[in-house]
Amino acid sequence: MDNVGDFISFFISDFVFLPEQEQKRIAKTSIIDILALMLSLDRQRLETALGLLGELLAAGKKDAFHLVVCGGSALIAQGVVSRATQDVDVLAQRNWDHEIQRVHPLPPVLAEAVRQVADELDLPENWLNSAASFHFPDFHALPESFWTDLETRDYGRWLQVAFVGRSGQILLKLYASLNRTESRDFEDLKALAPDARETEDALRWVLREIPGLTHRERLPELVTYLGHAGLDERFQK
To answer: Are residue 14 and residue 76 in the same domain, yes or no?
Structure first.
């Protein structure tokens, strides 16, 4: 099925003709959950969406963009995880002098192209999401290696996307794990598989550079989940 309309038509007209076992399987999943899955981005749809975004920017010939992308979409693009995601988290953009800048809100030219991609591919309007750029405390606090460990891809001449690499993702996912309660943060860290030294070094950075973590009490659970039980003792207040 290519879009939500096709799905709804199928559900109305063809569901009753499915084998009983298949009907029961589908019935266990709510329509909302199924729609959410259809509106999400797996690796193929992610590449399709970014490719189309690059084409639209090229057709407009107004502004070129170099975006730095983090989160689940970066992990999916690099093959670290196989799950889907609801959006592409844009952390920053680089200007022509390679300076790092916030990108919230999205510039009008980019926002309009994002909206067109959403219409074309039946994606949520905010499938390219700049909230991470708005909320991250301080780009300048990130280690220099964060900005060099990037996997950069061109989507035409007018769009370049730099996906945050493994070391940077470990930092960001540790930060997220101690600042909210999303299970996927733990799972993504497990997929990144930091060893004890990597985990300790990254945690020291997070705890030093980002004050006011809202779920610091999750630290013992987190390091145990990663197979490094006892590390939390080195961070006792």
So the answer is: no
- Expressed in percent and rounded to 5, the helix, strand and coil fractions of the chain are 55, 15, 30
SS3 label, residue 149: coil
Q: Which of 149, 164, 179 is the last residue of a domain?
A: 164
pTM of this prediction? 0.84
The H or E element spanning position 150 is: strand 150-154
Q: Which residues contact 13 (CB under 8 A, 6 or more apart)?
A: none
Average pLDDT, the chain: 88
Same domain, 61 and 121: yes
CA quadruple 134, 135, 140, 142: dihedral sign:
negative
φ, ψ of residue 225 in degrees (nearest 5): -60, -35
* Domain carrying residue 9: 4-38
d(CA 5, CA 108): 29
